[in-house]
């Protein structure tokens, strides 16, 4: 049989058992699914929604006491394990000896240096815990223009020390994060600071009866600046990233200078100053401040219109302000250059709740300044001139509206808000050109400590 007959016979034979097209397509799809599933490495059940890995674990409720204790113990064991992975003092000392032994000459001044080859050698000889610091990206990060391509030994060692300190602090803070979500509620931070007080020599003189007020004073700074949306929560990583925790732990230094203590919000003199001011303002001794009592804050030069807005927008109790609300007020007025403080004051200035200040808003607050100017027998100041100066300072994106972001971006936000709410600040601003060089410190608007200029030299 030749090949033509053979092929014809084969076609005829196969055609007899051929299936209808729909039936054939179904079989092909079934086979394709079977072989594709096997190729992916699992059967039908493996790709079912029933075997999706669990990614959400419900926190135990207050009634589930055993589950709560189990969770707390588990977290404690985990944190202890992480703590053991950190370098101790002896290991850090051995690291310094190795670095010093492998320094690369010549020295830059009095600073010992090391090149990349010796850097890797030290990494090989170091403890396993330290090896992850000896990476090319760490070396490159610390390069600072050395002609021999070296890095400073002390800079690298400080880098390691800083990392170890951050991890230690992170673990220490996590012990107070009872929910285990990576953030602090006010009560969590209060517990942390309360237990920290006995370890800070600079707070050794505080009476125990004052501890609750000190803790409130300290906690408010964290929440005022790190929780601008007032959610009642702060991420632990945000606490580590800011400088406030460093300021608080600076109080471990037994020889901290008087100047450093006065400039540190968390020091005993600073906390006593703020609380003492609050008590002095509270003339009726009811533990709260009325608008009339708050009007004597600083040099008593805040306008009544601004104070009205404070009591309209801020949390009060029967029209009076408590100590926590007062702390927010003080932090805003003493840090007017900070975005969080500008946000606080901007909300008070935004009387129409539109998210921006327009000519009407500016005029509303400046009228109170004009009334004080007239009261002191001074020549009337034209609002149009002040309005133009404000818009020139801020240079907003919209020439008719000033947003909070415009104020922050201008770096003039503290000056703008100060001349709208405080007659003293406006007077200093108006007379800035006639200030002698020795009075420059008084010309700083936004610092409550310099607001005595108006009180000492009021307009006649």
Written account of the structure:
This protein is mainly α and 460 residues long. The chain has three domains: 65-171, Recoverin, domain 1 (Orthogonal Bundle), CATH 1.10.238; 180-270, Orthogonal Bundle (Recoverin, domain 1); 289-456, Recoverin, domain 1. Helix content is 57%, strand content 2%. It is built from 23 helices and four strands. Helix 8 crosses helix 9 and helix 9 (211-226) packs across helix 13 (268-281). It is extended and about 125 Å long. It comes from Erpetoichthys calabaricus.
The assigned CATH architecture of the largest domain is Orthogonal Bundle
Taking pLDDT < 50 over at least 5 consecutive residues as the criterion, the unreliable ranges are 440-460
Distance between the termini: 130 Å
How much of the residues is beta strand, in percent? under 5%
**Domains, number:** 3
How many β-strands, per DSSP? Answer: 4
Domain EF-hand: 337-372
Subcellular location: Cytoplasm; Nucleus
GO molecular function: calcium ion binding
Keywords: Calcium, Cytoplasm, Metal-binding, Nucleus, Repeat
């Amino acid at each position: 049989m030749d090949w033509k007959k053979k092929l014809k016979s084969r076609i005829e034979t196969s055609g007899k058992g051929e299936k209808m097209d729909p039936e054939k397509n179904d079989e092909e799809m079934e086979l394709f699914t079977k072989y594709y599933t096997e190729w992916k490495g699992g059967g039908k059940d493996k790709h079912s929604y029933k075997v999706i890995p669990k990614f959400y674990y419900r926190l135990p409720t207050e009634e589930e006491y055993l589950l709560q204790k189990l969770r707390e113990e588990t977290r404690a064991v985990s944190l202890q394990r992480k703590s053991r992975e950190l370098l101790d003092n002896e290991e850090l000392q051995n690291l310094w000896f190795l670095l010093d032994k492998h320094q690369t000459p010549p020295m830059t001044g009095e600073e010992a240096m090391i090149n990349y080859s010796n850097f890797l050698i030290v990494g090989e000889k170091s403890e396993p815990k330290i090896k992850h610091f000896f990476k090319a990206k760490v070396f490159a990060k610390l390069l600072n223009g050395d002609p021999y391509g070296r890095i400073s030994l002390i800079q690298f060692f400080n880098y390691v020390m800083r990392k170890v300190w951050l991890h230690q602090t992170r673990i220490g803070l996590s012990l107070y994060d009872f929910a285990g979500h990576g953030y602090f509620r006010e009560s969590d931070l209060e517990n942390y600071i309360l237990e920290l007080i006995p370890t800070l020599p600079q707070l050794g003189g505080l009476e125990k009866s004052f501890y609750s007020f000190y803790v409130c004073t300290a906690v408010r700074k964290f929440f005022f600046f790190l929780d601008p949306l007032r959610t009642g929560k702060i991420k632990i990583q945000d606490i580590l990233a800011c400088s406030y925790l460093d300021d608080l732990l600076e109080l471990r230094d037994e020889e901290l200078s008087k100047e450093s203590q006065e400039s540190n919000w968390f020091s005993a003199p600073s906390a006593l100053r703020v609380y003492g001011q609050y008590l002095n303002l509270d003339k009726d001794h009811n533990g709260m401040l009325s608008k009339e009592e708050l009007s004597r804050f600083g040099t008593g030069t805040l306008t009544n219109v601004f104070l009205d807005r404070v009591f309209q927008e801020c949390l009060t109790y029967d029209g009076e302000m408590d100590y926590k609300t007062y702390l927010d007020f003080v932090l805003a007025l003493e840090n007017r250059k900070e975005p969080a403080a500008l946000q606080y004051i901007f909300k008070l200035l935004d009387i129409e709740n539109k998210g921006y200040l327009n000519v009407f808003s500016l005029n509303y607050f400046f009228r109170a300044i004009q009334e004080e100017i007239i009261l002191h027998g001074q020549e009337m100041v034209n609002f149009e001139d002040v309005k133009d100066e404000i818009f020139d300072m801020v240079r907003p994106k919209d020439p008719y509206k000033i947003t909070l972001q415009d104020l922050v971006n201008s770096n003039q936000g503290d000056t703008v808000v100060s001349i709208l709410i405080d007659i003293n600040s406006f007077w200093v601003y108006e007379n800035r050109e006639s200030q002698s060089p020795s009075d420059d410190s008084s010309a700083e608007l936004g610092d409550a400590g310099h607001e005595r200029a108006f009180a000492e030299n009021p307009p006649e």
